Fold this sequence. Notes:
The complex is a heterodimer. Chain A is mostly beta strands. Helices cover about 0% and strands about 45% of the residues of chain A. Chain A is built from no helices and nine strands. In chain A, the strands form two sheets. In chain A, strands 1, 3, 4, 7, 8 and 9 form a six-stranded mixed beta sheet that branches. In chain A, strands 2-6-5 form a three-stranded antiparallel beta sheet, with no helix packed on it. In chain A, a hairpin with a 6-residue loop joins strand 3 and strand 4 (about 45-50). The relative contact order of chain A is 0.34. By secondary structure, chain B is an all-beta fold. Chain B has strands spanning about 5, 10, 20-25, 35-40, 45-50, 60, 70-75, 80-85, 90-100, 105-110, 115. In chain B, strand 7 (about 70-75) and strand 8 form a beta hairpin. At the A-B interface, strand 3, strand 7 and strand 8 of A face strand 5 and strand 10 of B.
Amino acid sequence: QSALTQPASVSGSPGQSITISCTGTSSDVGGYNYVSWYQQHPGKAPKLMIYEVSNRPSGVPDRFSGSKSGNTASLTISGLQAEDEADYYCSSYTSSSPHVVFGGGTKLTVL
Amino acid sequence: EVQLVESGGGLVQPGGSLRLSCAASGFTFSSYEMNWVRQAPGKGLEWVSYISSSGSTIYYADSVKGRFTISRDNAKNSLYLQMNSLRAEDTAVYYCARDLPAMVTFDYWGQGTLVTVSS
């Protein structure tokens, strides 16, 4: 059982927006702004999409955005494109063991 | 260009040992904290271990504590993971990942190396 809770799957049509939630506790998501989001295509290494809740690394499209409210963080992808179809994982620093915790992952299907 | 290249994976029997390596290039390795993250077949990501830039601070996931040892050689731009007393549940792709400074996030990942623990 993962420390952070994500929906197993979400779907959307091209051009639409979707949001993936990531729920933790006050010891991780709610207590710190060290929430990150990763995109992983099949057979590939994860790619950083969002860090520190809402910051995008250079090269990540601004269609990807992050936010947080209380113990829940969210990743929103607007203007869905076919290449966005992938698995998405959230992570957070945690004050309890271990050092970093991941969510169980969400499979995004672009219809 | 930042590159992280893992090696050392393979098939090992339960109770056996394996040493993974991660060769870093394209950045000043000695200035960055590093991690190992694994992914069991068809499963999610699991953080395994962290080491500070100097090697003085180390953390482990409870699932590997006492069995795995992380280390680094800054002169060789290399990160290591010594894995002992391996179990079937350690079967996974192991990634080395660089820490974005002070952000507790992984900004670059290697391509991964597969470790299979089976008799």
